[in-house]
Structure formats: C-alpha cells, structure tokens
Amino acid sequence: MTLSISSAHAADISFTGQFAYDNDVEQFSFTVGAPSSVTLRTWSYAGGINAAGDAIPRGGFDPSIALFDTNGVLIGEQDDGSCADVAADAITGNCWDIFYTTTLAPGTYTAALFQYDNFANGPTLAQGFFYDGDANRNFRGGFYDDAGDQREPRWALDILNVASASMQDGNGGEGDVPEPGSLALLGLGVFGLAAARRRRSV
Q: Which of 22, 73, 90, 135 is the most buried (most CB within 10 A)?
C-alpha cells in the first residue's frame, strides 16, 4: 500500500515498515514545490515519537540514507546523525539514527533507505547498492549494528517539509505502512472535495 499526500503547503510525512532481508533497499519519491530545507529523519534505531505522533519502539536496524536528484545523481548520504540531533539507544548508547538536512530546489527526488553498510555503489541510483543480488540475501545472517548487536528489521522514516511523498515499489520491505505526518492535510483534502461536490449539485 502506498499513500501520497499533496498540498500547496509543505508537509511532514511519515513511513514505517519492515525489511524481509538485511540487504533490502526501500526507495521513496518526494516532491519539493519551492526552494526548501528538507529533512530525512529515521526513528529505527533508538525509537521515539515520529512526525505522525506515533511511538516507534527502539531496536530497529542501524539505518543509512542516500539522496538522489531528479536525474538519479547522488546528492548526499548519511550513515549516522550526531548525538545532538538524534537520541541515543537506551541499551547500546549509540546515536545511529539519521538526521539529514539539505536545501533543495523545486523538483522530484529519491531517498533510499538501507542497513548501514549497504551503501550506494556509485554516484547514480542506476548503479545500485553494495549488496544487490547477493546470493544469500541475508548477507550477514540477519540484522546487526556496527558493534555486532542483534537488531530487528523494522524501520521508520520521516520526510519533512515537502509537497508530497510516496514509497516506491522496490525490493525492500514487507508490510510497509506509510502514514501521513498530518492527518489534517488528508482531512482538508476530503473536506474540499465534498464541499466542491456540494456546490456543483446546488
């Protein structure tokens, strides 16, 4: 299931899900309507309250993010946010969630989410990721962080201050459930359609 929310105003949009294999990559397409500071924020590792107001449990895998422009050219990657921006995991003490902020021009972008050591192969999305096509799929036998701690396949991602966002049908994830960062936006859209229909019928 994929949900896309569009608005004349910028929105914060949350996605949650679970990988099937530890070399999966989940891709998200998002649109920026005006020059904007956009943030990609995960809650997978330490947990917390996401932009949708949902409590995300700690214990998910150590995430990494790669951001690509409209032409599929790599803009930037982040493996770990700083402890000033993301919480420390209650058990490991590590600050290994993502807090990646950059200023983007209007356009459509792709964010790729993956486990920390499955990085982009090169400067374009078409070049894929390090563990693509691994014959064993679970290339390390499961989900482990850099310290060797066992983790869960869950992930949670916020895409903040964008016009719209949707999860692509890629090779990563089972039971992926995107959630609107603001149900008010969805409600306003439904209300607007209902009001327009009522005006036409009068």
A: 22
